[in-house]
Amino acid sequence: MQFWNNGIDSLPDDLFTNMPKLQYVDFSDNKITQITEPVFGGVYNTLKVLQMEGNPVICDCSIRWYMSRYRGTLKGNCGAPEDRQGRSFQSLTAKDFTYCN
């Protein structure tokens, strides 16, 4: 599925509920700041690529779940916080989230 360059700033929690075979999603060049776990509940076992280039994703504790489960599928760079701005999602490690409870 391709949703690139649509001005999307958030994703509803049930977005992929009825799409159990979905493997590729492109949200490039939107305004998405958060990637929440409930959004991807329907594609936990099938998602292979999530394109997020050009989004100001906040790489804080809220994406730790995604990084531990899907680290290799997420394509793009962090938009914040300042110490991670511009870092690729691929470069983040568990050490980047040790402050999270």
Account of the 3D structure:
With 101 residues, the protein is largely without helices or strands. The chain is built from one helix and three strands, in the order E-E-H-E. It has one helix at residues 64-70; strands at 24-26, 49-51, 74-75. The chain has a three-stranded parallel beta sheet with strand order 1-2-3. Strand 2, helix 1 (64-70) and strand 3 form a beta-alpha-beta unit. The longest helix is centred in the middle third of the chain and has 7 residues, at 64-70. The radius of gyration is 13 Å and the shape is globular. The model has no long low-confidence stretch (mean pLDDT 91). Keywords: Receptor. One of its GO terms (cellular component) is plasma membrane. It comes from Nephila pilipes. One of its GO terms (biological process) is cell surface receptor signaling pathway.
Helix content: under 10%
Class from helix and strand fractions: little secondary structure
- Can you tell me the overall shape? globular
> Would you report the number of β strands?
3
Q: How would a textbook summarize the main sheet?
A: 3 strands, parallel
The radius of gyration is 13 Å
Count of helical stretches: 1
How much of the sequence lies in strands comes to 5-15%
Strand order of the largest sheet: 1-2-3
SSE order, as H and E?
EEHE
Distance between the termini: 34 Å
As residue ranges, the low-confidence spans are none
Q: Average pLDDT across residues?
A: 91
